[in-house]
Design goal:
The structure is a single chain. With 198 residues, this protein is an alpha/beta fold. It folds into 2 domains: 109 residues, Alpha/beta knot; 82 residues, Alpha/beta knot. An 8-stranded mixed sheet has the order 6-7-5-4-1-9-8-10. Strand 4 and strand 5 form a beta hairpin. It is globular. The N and C termini lie close together (9 Å). The relative contact order is 0.19.
Length: 198
């Protein structure tokens, strides 16, 4: 399973935003919607072996995490409004610390980066995630057997000091020599994993 964790620093944690103003009133929810689409869409198909976690840190009830499962998701179309509508429905649900399904393959719970780092660990007890960082090791130079398949990236903002402290010991991976938008980075990384048959 490939996993992407995207932190939305201003993204609203309620479903009361307008689909017509996701860049403004929803706290750059448009960035997260593009990331969702990059995680899953192929030409006339979906990637079923991907999970996408959106950590929402905006008002009024942060943090919350929305999970999209490629294996189970339905009603997702390749446009920002489609992903935004599914996010609205998820965020309208009362939630606890356990994932609750809002629509097929879309889940919401309380909690954020800290909980996900604790939950997803390898056999030695280390977090499985790597950080996507332009100053990291080039993914093309990493052998397939040691290439990570779970990644953390930020929205249009840098990681906060608190986040940097939580991820300071994680491996850092670069998608290439240029700084790209988060959704483009996801596309490039998935292409590299495809080339490595991961």
């Amino acid at each position: 399973m490939k996993r992407f964790l995207i932190i939305g620093h201003k993204a609203l944690t309620t479903g009361s935003f307008s689909l017509n103003d996701m860049p403004g009133s929803a706290g750059r929810m448009d960035v997260l919607c593009r990331c969702v689409n990059s995680c899953f869409f192929l030409s006339h198909d979906l990637r079923r072996d991907v999970e996408c976690f959106l950590v929402l840190l905006g008002e009024p009830d942060a943090p919350k995490t929305v999970k999209f499962s490629g294996e189970k998701v339905r009603y997702l179309n390749p446009d920002e409004r489609s992903a935004g509508s599914l996010l609205q429905k998820a965020l309208a649900l009362p939630c606890t610390e356990t994932f609750r399904e809002s629509t097929r393959g879309v889940y919401v719970r309380r909690g954020g980066l800290k909980e996900l780092l604790e939950e997803f660990r390898d056999e030695e007890g280390n977090p499985i995630f790597a950080i996507l960082d332009e100053n990291g090791s080039d993914i093309r130079e990493i052998p397939p057997e040691t290439t990570p398949t779970a990644f953390i990236l930020s929205d249009h903002m840098n990681f906060t000091q608190e986040e940097e402290e939580m991820i300071k010991d994680l491996k850092r991976i670069s998608a290439g020599p240029k700084v790209m938008h988060a959704d483009h980075t996801i596309t490039v990384i998935l292409n590299e994993l495809d080339r490595k048959n991961l």
